[in-house]
């Protein structure tokens, strides 16, 4: 069975190249601005990754919030709203309540976000037919990383490798998977776990890597996988393998490793007789009634 999700996952390197070739610097947060990055679901996890990267690049204080949990009364120079659909209720509500200059990144120019935000970046070429978000999330992050001055050439090469390499059977058949990251990859670990849950209804968790030994490692064991996005803390592999569990660490850029996790999510869906294009209980956008 060929699915929209598979095609969209495979198209990511080309989408990333397009995104970094045309970075709309005029619409992105300026160096020194205090920025709140908001989103829901996948967009929240991308916001977490970007916030950490922006601070690490010395661009200014940057906080990431689920749109429903952003604190009222806190002052920012700019709000950056991430919303593939452009219709998510919590994002639109927040922009209507905050008297702060705003930029939105979306895939659909025919949605309310075009009026709700002061500036809008439209990545329509990265839009998706699948409910499960893959290429739009990573394409906007590629653009944001390029806007911080990163060279994405090696990252694109890593993504092509992640798409080309065969998937180990132990990742597809594992009873349980825990994703770990450090720094900006913590958000991507959360997103990898979400993709597994959405596409294949898998039992997945995600944590900052250094927190894993503070309790969550108790779930490790035979038939279970601890999957690191980025470089693992010293000694963690040995501790996981001592439980009989499998430890995965590829050395790829965490955003490229997320592509591999997306592929595994689809493969696990097929193994369970599920269609990743039609995840249970989900819609493309959460639109709440007044």
UniProtKB/TrEMBL annotation:
Keywords, ordered alphabetically: Isomerase, Repeat
InterPro entries: GlmS/AgaS_SIS (IPR035466), GlmS/FrlB_SIS (IPR035490), SIS_dom (IPR001347), SIS_dom_sf (IPR046348)
Top-level taxonomic group: Bacteria
Residue ranges of domain SIS in the record: 20-154
An example Gene Ontology molecular-function term: isomerase activity
Record-given protein name: Sugar isomerase
Organism (species): Nonomuraea corallina
């Amino acid at each position: 069975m060929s699915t929209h999700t598979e095609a969209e996952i495979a198209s990511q390197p080309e989408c990333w190249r397009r995104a970094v070739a045309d970075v709309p610097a005029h619409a992105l947060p300026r160096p020194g601005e205090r920025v709140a990055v908001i989103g829901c679901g996948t967009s929240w996890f991308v916001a977490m990754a970007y916030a950490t990267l922006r601070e690490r690049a010395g661009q200014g204080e940057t906080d990431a919030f689920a749109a429903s949990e952003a604190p009222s009364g806190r002052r920012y120079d700019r709000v950056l709203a991430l919303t593939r659909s452009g219709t998510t209720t919590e994002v639109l509500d927040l922009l209507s309540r905050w008297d702060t200059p705003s930029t939105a990144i979306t895939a659909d120019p025919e949605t309310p976000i075009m009026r709700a935000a002061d500036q809008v970046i439209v990545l329509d070429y990265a839009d998706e037919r699948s409910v499960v978000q893959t290429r739009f999330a990573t394409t906007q992050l590629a653009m944001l990383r390029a806007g911080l001055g990163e060279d994405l050439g090696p990252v694109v090469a890593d993504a092509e490798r992640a798409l080309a390499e065969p998937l180990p059977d132990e990742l597809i058949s594992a009873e349980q998977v825990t994703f770990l990251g450090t720094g900006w990859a913590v958000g991507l670990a959360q997103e990898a776990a979400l993709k597994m849950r959405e596409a294949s209804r898998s039992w997945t968790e995600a944590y900052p890597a250094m927190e894993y030994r503070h309790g969550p490692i108790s779930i490790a064991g035979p038939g279970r996988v601890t999957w690191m996005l980025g470089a693992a803390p010293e000694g963690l592999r040995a501790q996981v393998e001592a439980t009989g569990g499998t430890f995965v660490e590829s050395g790829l850029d965490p955003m490229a490793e997320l592509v591999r996790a997306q592929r595994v999510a689809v493969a696990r869906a097929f193994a369970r007789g599920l269609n990743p294009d039609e995840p249970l209980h989900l819609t493309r956008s959460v639109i709440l009634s007044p």
